[in-house]
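User: Teach me something about this protein's shape.
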Amino acid sequence: METTSLYADWKKIYPRYQSGFFRSLRLWVYGLELAIFFLLPWMRWDRPAGLPDQAVLFDLPGRKFYIFSLEIWPQDIFLLAFLLIAAAIGLFFMTALAGRVFCGYMCFQTVWTDWFLLVEKIFEGNRNARMKFDHAPWSGRKAVVKIGKHGVWLLVSAWTGMTFVLYFGDAPQLLGQFLDGSVPFAAWFTFLFLTVTTYIMAGFAREQVCIYMCPYARFQGVMFDEDTIIVAYHPELGEPREANRRKRNLLGAQVGACIDCDSCVTVCPTGIDIRNGQQYECITCGACIDACDSVRAKVGMASRLIRYTSLREMRSGKTQWLRGRILVYTALLSIFLGGIVYYLASHVPVEFTVIGHRQPLYILQSDGSIQNNYTVRVLNMTATPQSYVLTMSGLAGTRLTIGAVETYSPEGAPVLEVAPGSVTPFTAYVRQESAHVESGRRDIVFHLRAVTPQGGEASYQSVFMRP
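Assistant: First, the predicted structure itself:
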């Protein structure tokens, strides 16, 4: 019985290194990304005494994120949701505008794969030399070259895993703990996991990640339209193809500009032929444009057969930039980014909650007054101790006191002392004189104000219960 596989057999792709404008542009972008990733954990930042001086630090044990001048607490976790939504919308916007340009210029998989390919080129040569070298029988030289290449790959992978871990602790101290073996198990596990996955994904999986594993490759096509900028081959200029120079001269105008050299195919990191039309495997890196341009320059052809364009431009010569989905994505991205900026600009460094005691709901005093008890929790999100004045409004004839607090403001309001970066609970007693007591519940508002402007202020609405 004959069976048919639904999947094509995997064949190793040997992308040829091709210099050119878009290769140089990608190298600049790749270099910037790598510099940011590897140098950021070592960058210092001036913060108040008692806070870490690492510019970007994700302090999981302390449940705080430090990003330059920002200090993000667990209470700000919704910012992460806003940021992820904004990133997704930004990706949709980028895709609708310029296809998979993110994949070709900014994706970590692309950046590290290109780095590994450069190492492979240094050890084994360009495309033809690598193919010949792989198919040659094993020898002492081949073993040394292969070991050297994989050794550098492992060093790059380990450097990558180590750098990622350094974002979660003081970089110099954490590196010292790695060297003396005292680092926690979680750090070892993360380091080894990222080392192995980087080595496999960038060294072996390569284009398989872009084609099969990445979900973005599967759904990005629904965001394309006729005005999306893609890398495209112009068949009206290149067809019919003819590689033989003598035949081209004989046929003259009856042949297209494409000389069928396959340079655009040999440089493609995913192994596709751009001349077959738009394909989801294309990561819009522009390598085929550099390859075709270099051949055109050698043979003296004026027409640019492969370029960044849109289907509408290929058909009518003009791209419509302002269109519905672009405007919608722009508006949504502006809303979410604006919301993040507004929150960070208006954020106060103190939060507090007031929870009324339910057992009992209220206490009837011997003089006819009514007392409610509350638990007040104050979070001081500054790096210095703070003194807060607690007041209450919305209820006539009341007095607010705090248990175990002896300091009161000149107006008679209790002053709460809270240590930096901590949550402190207090028990508050609110008593309404009998002359002002009415039946039913009443909405009240607690106000918290720091003595110094750096401490901020906040309010919390609660309820005063009565018979």
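Now, about its shape. Residues 406 and 414 are 8 Å apart (CA to CA). The longest helix spans residues 140-166. If you'd like, I can walk through any region in more detail.
User: That's plenty for now, thanks!
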